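Hi support team,

I submitted a single chain yesterday and got back a structure, but I'm not sure I'm reading the token output correctly. Could someone confirm the output below corresponds to the sequence I sent? I've pasted both exactly as they appear in my results page.

Thanks,
R.
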Amino acid sequence: MAGGELAVLALIGLFAGLIGGLLGIGGSIIMIPAMTEVLGPDQHLYQAAAMIVNFFVVVPAVIQHVRARAIAWGTVARLLPIGAAAVIGGVAISELRFFAGSGEAYLRGLFGLFLLLISVSDLYRLFRSEPAASCEESVRRPGWRFAAAIAVPAGLVAGLLGVGGGILAVPLQRRFLAVPIRQAIANSAALIIATSLIGATCKNYAYVVHHEGSLRSFGLAAVLIPTAAVGSWIGSRLTHTLPRRTVRTAFLIVLLVAAVRLIYHAALAVPK
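Hi R., thanks for writing in. Yes, this is the structure output for that exact sequence:
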């Protein structure tokens, strides 16, 4: 890998960590489209690498959230076992023969569609006033039905697409538990510590088995981790101080551009 590519990957890690720590979503949603642009398409490789990096993105974030006493541990404990099972299921789906070989383009297109859906949904929420949650709502332990409504889609998407899962866990907590946005971000980061570790183990095992013992994902992760961890440390501190509308607007622009490009290039690469 050339020196210029290493420098660009380090910058990708920094930006992904910053956004991931700030919004409680891990860093894959930035890393995977960016690596596709810099290194060319290889969705399974990038997902395997990004799932490793996600763990190192959320650890510094969780430390910051613990210091701010923002994590509702009862909620996290209820979400965790369901999310762990769902992320394993998501990885298994991503390794189906349908997504192998040239079918990787379908997985890349699916990732682009997911980004587009999240962008549109977040754009709607950005300009929609939401009622503030009460103190009682912010600390209540969710029932298993609500926990499943949050953890199952977040875990499945995390395993299938290699994302942290917070991109769904944060808004779903707002929807079903009415927790404050900063606490939803903190809870999501704590959840991702476990699901990213489980997902990374499953995905990288599958990648090594199905790609002739290749360890390329670990090499990519080693380049991304140092700057991603620094970015996450900064971003998670800003979570509790920075006005969020400007940050979310910039983030939406990035997501929309990445979504359109991924969908376009995936459409060109779809097996005829």
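A quick pointer for reading it: The CA atoms of residues 62 and 82 lie 20 Å apart. Let us know if anything else looks off.

Best,
Support desk
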